[in-house]
Amino acid sequence: MDTADGNLAPRRGWWSRNWKWVVPVGCLGMLASCGCFVAVFFGAIFGTMTNTGAAKEAVTLAMSDSEVQATLGTKIDTGFPMGSVKTMNGDTRVDMSISMDGDKADGTLRVKATNKGDGWNYSVLQVEVPGRPPIDLRDRTGGGSPRELAPPTPDAPPAQDVPPTDEDFPPANEGEQEQEGGSDINL
User: Fold this and answer.
1) Which of 20, 43, 49, 110 is 20 to 30 Å from 9 at the Cα level?
2) What is the tens place of the pLDDT at every residue in 144-177?
3) Per-residue b or e along 33-70, where b marks 16 or more CB atoms closer than 10 Å to that residue's CB
4) Structural domain boundaries enclosing 89
5) What is the reported pTM?
6) Is residue 58 part of a domain?
């Protein structure tokens, strides 16, 4: 039996005609979707870490400090912050390191700070450069100079407004939510 076009073979289906381009495009599409998800996830974490008030303030203080500029140079680029931001019951604790690449030398900005709603109180705010003593920036914040944070002498009255320690932020048990919407960001 002949058909009108003279071909006796049945016509192949859509999949059998197009599978050679559908499979690679589908696989690449799924890989691209996963890559976009990872990029958005890390972008959100990076944005949260760099937009923390303590990180912004610390970088601004370090980059405008004359001793830091004399050591690292005037053109300073900052890297990705590494560390943690913990919030519990309205108190925020930041512990992070930010790389600083200057035209003269490279260093690391170390930041440990707490905020109870009244501004950042820095227990550590310094730029560390290999081969040099750390450049302490705490006296430039109004959050306490090294002398104020040193142990008191026997005659001195007890210190007021002591920054919280690790004991003030107990770790949450596995499977247990922190109270009042607390959050942690660790890198």
Assistant:
1) 20
2) 434 344 444 455 455 454 555 555 555 544 444 4
3) eeeeeeeeeeeebeeebeebebbebbbebbbebeebbe
4) 52-153+182-186
5) 0.56
6) yes
